[in-house]
Amino acid sequence: MGLVYADITLINGGDIEMAKRHFIGEEEIKQMTVKMMVDSGAYMMAINETIQEQLDLSFIEKRKAVLTDETVQEYDVVGPIHVKFENRTAICSAMVLKGNNEPLLGAIPMEEMDVLIHPRRQELIVNPEHPYYAQLSLK
Fold it and tell me: What is the DSSP letter of 120?
């Protein structure tokens, strides 16, 4: 299977809360659509410094992650981020990669949105068993 990419909308969750409380207008909510590599082997979502700066996401903590070459790196974690794909949403945090590295959509937001990788079409799809809403497992 080749690489899978999807257009994912990222929204500053803090801005959404500020708009709900009427501290800012709806038009001031920072958001952007990004072509992300869909990586079910990655646990968390990863964005780059450019995306973090444009969305003005708040620092949460530092975390270490094991990379594919087995090295361990420390990254800033930012959020909350509202993630949207088609008729699905998730709320999560993201690790921040240096520079303009390729952003990754990991397993946590994929599970929350109930989306799948279609291997033949090599694309991200809404789970066909639940086409109208995400269904999560609590067991």
Answer: T
Measured from the Cβ of residue 31, the count of other Cβ atoms closer than 10 Å reads 15
Give residue 1's pLDDT: 58
Is 102 within the bounds of a domain? yes
Residue 121 CA to residue 99 CA, distance in Å, equals 31
Q: Is residue 49 part of a domain?
A: yes
Structure tokens at 44: 């968390």
Q: Is residue 101 domain-resident? A: yes
CA nearest neighbour of 113 among 67, 82, 139, 138: 82
As for how many domains the chain has, the answer is 1
| Structural domain span for residue 102 | 5-126
This prediction's pTM: 0.93
Chain segment 1-48, per-residue pLDDT in tens: 579 999 999 999 999 999 999 999 999 999 999 999 999 888 999 999
Residues 6+ apart with CB under 8 A from 65: 43, 44, 72, 73, 74, 75, 95
79 within domain boundaries: yes
